[in-house]
Each structure stands twice: as C-alpha cells, then as structure tokens.
Amino acid sequence: xxxxxxxxxxxxxxxxxxxxxxxxxxxxxxxxxxxxxxxxxxxxxxxxxxxxxxxxxxxxxxxxxxxxxxxxxxxxxxxxxxxxxxxxxxxxxxxxxxxxxxxxxxxxxxxxxxxx
Length: 116
Known about the structure:
alpha+beta, Endonuclease I-creI, 4 helices
C-alpha cells in the first residue's frame, strides 16, 4: 500500500463502503480500470468528503448534460489497487453483486488491480 492510504474510523469507513455499494460503478476505459460515483450537484459536499477519505481519488465537475447536473468521483490506477486493498473485503462481505462486479473488473484489467 502506498503511504497515501488513509485508515478511516468506523463511521468514515462505513460511509465509503455504503456509497460504493449504493452508487459505485466498477468499469474501465478499455485500458485502465476505474471506480466511479456520479451524483447530483446537491451532493457536492459528500463527494468532496469521499475524495478526502480516499487520497489520490479525483472529483470532476460539475457537469451539465441534458437536464442532469452532477459531479463524478473517480479512482483508478495504483490508487484503485490501494482502495481495493483497504475496502475489498468489506465490499465483498456485504454485497454479492458488488463482489461480482469487482471480479469482472479484476478479470478484465488483471495485473493493475493486484493487491500491493
């Protein structure tokens, strides 16, 4: 793990896991795996907190597309591997659908997601 990984307290840890389970999208661009959460601009404060809790993650936006106004939080690359090292066990234990999405992402993007 890199030195930038925070080990949050129980509340913050639960917040991160809950947001990822409820809103997370495990995906990639064909070259690099990524985890993204897109939420309405009214949730900016929450997404900024998430970016602070996961060092190396990024918050993009605000975006305006059709009638949607949103921010997108993203984690990828070595930061995503570190994130999985920290949170994968909890995510898998709490939600089998998320576990399957992690499996698919790891199968597709392989070595870049291996635990460090």
